[in-house]
Amino acid sequence: MNVATHHLRCTECAAVITKDDVSSDFRCPQCKGLYEVVYAWSDVKHPPHAPDDPNSRLPNPSALRWLWQERRSSSLAVDQSGVWRFRDLLPIIEDLEKAVTLREGNTPLYDLPRCAKGAGIDWLLAKHQGMNPTGSFKDTGMTAALSVAAQRGFEWVACASTGNTSAAMAAYAARAGLRSIVFIPEGKIAWGKLSQAMDYGALTIQLKTDFDGCVKILGELVQKFPIYLLNSVNPYRLEGQKTPAFEMVEQMDWQVPEHIVVPGGNLANSAALGKGFSEMYQLGLIPRLPKISVIQAEGANPLYRWFIDSNRVMKPVTADTRATAIRIGNPASWRKAAAVIDELGGWCEQVSEQEIALAKAEIGAEGVGCEPASAVTLAGLKKLVALGKITPEERVVLILTGHTLKDSQYTIDYHRNELFTAAEVAQLTPAQLAQHAALRKPPIVLEADSTLVLRTLESHMSESHKNQPQPA
Ligand code: F0G
């Protein structure tokens, strides 16, 4: 399989173009739809061919499984990358040796037994994409799309971002020796992410608007200057972002979970994971598909609104949520995400600010932690279980998209009980207030006096002893 075999196809009007014909905004000139990367196997039906048919021109599933495993023990950078290790299913660059990689991917799959119990299911896993080099899932997409940019000879790359894309793009651009421009909404991204863009040397422009406003300005710029656009409208980003699906089932000994729960912002990640699972299914690597459900914050919920609207009309919203990564009101990839939910049989839910904060604290209390946008998955899972969309015995995987250190201010405000407004506190039931109180661990400031420290510890220990479940 070589690069000549990939094309770009409009996901709306199905027009197919070659990779060199794509316009700078990555939109179809006819219908303004987004493109997807298509390969020889993109349209085959499962099962594609007798698995060991030597005449098949499609990748052989057993050979792929073996090869991907073998590459784990290699010292080559592309083999150590958890994205390029699966390169057979993303043949998008000509010169593999020049792939721009920070050894992304290879992220852990953690079990979350206490969160599972709290949500009312038997078994829960988290694929922690926050354990990537720049602390978010964006690295998997950035290695792919930035490698394409570098090989096509671009000098400048740019993105509009709620923070994580900009951090990833700045890092990968720096690795490749390219110049990067970041457009972020002023005052509305977490400091950790802003600091990364600067640290990795990006030209960082804070616009006095929101994410959707940044996208608009950048869209105009890429028409006028030779800047390579690295937002998720760039279909190569999704090729990298589909690989956690491969890695996840490999980590589960090629068993397929029943349900994947993904946070939804600009809605490319859910689409990318759906593409990853579908391609594995088409090639016969997995025997069935999981459901993929998307969870949005109540204040940034255009897909949820579309989902519950009987006429299914997409209406952009003015977004507002403390989960700033997903503070997006006009998501570019909503049609792709909607298709994944419908085709794979998932659901879309919304969760409140209080539900997000509680879920984040619960994930933190398991010693895993994540950023607020990632915690919508656990909050949404509870709702999906309550609605009967997920049953207790189903194996569920939450996609944790960002590291807890990305937004430490949120965590500190939560534990100091300074996150919610009085009106938000008033909405909580006594049981919910008790849940928050049990999870909050504010720092205790003391004089450096050992007697005082000892007394404080004793009172804490007896307090936590009282809260332990007593034997019947
Ligand atoms: N989680 C985190 C931590 C994110 O940073 C994002 C998106 C999402 C979830 C949503 O993913 O957009 O594919 O639906 N962040 C983008 C950014 C928009 O600019 O960093 P999505």
Strand content: 5-15%
SS class: alpha/beta
Tally of separate helices? 18
User: First CA to last CA: what distance?
Assistant: 64 Å
Mean pLDDT: 95
The biggest beta sheet, please? 6 strands, mixed
Coarse morphology = globular
- Strand order of the biggest β-sheet: 4-5-13-10-11-12
Taking Cα atoms only, what radius of gyration do you get, to the nearest Å? Answer: 23 Å
Percent helix, as a range, is: 40-55%
Q: What small molecules are bound in this structure?
A: ligand F0G
Query: Total number of β-strand segments?
Result: 13
Low confidence ranges: none
How does this model look, in words?
This protein is 40% helix and 12% strand. It is an alpha/beta fold. Strands 4-5-13-10-11-12 form a 6-stranded mixed sheet, sandwiched between helices. A 4-stranded parallel sheet has the order 8-7-6-9, with helices on both faces. It has a 3-stranded antiparallel sheet with strand order 2-1-3. Helix 5 (164-176) links the parallel strand 6 (156-160) and strand 7. Helix 4 (138-151) runs parallel beside helix 5 (164-176). The chain is globular and about 75 Å long. The mean pLDDT is 95. Ligand F0G is lined by residues 136, 138, 161-165, 232, 263-269, 325-326, 371, 373-374, 401-402.
Task: Provide a quick synopsis of the model.
This protein is α/β, with parallel strands linked by helices and about 475 residues long. It has 18 helices and 13 strands.
Give short descriptive properties of this protein:
binds ligand F0G, globular, 40% helix, 6-stranded mixed beta sheet, 18 helices, 472 residues, 4-stranded parallel beta sheet
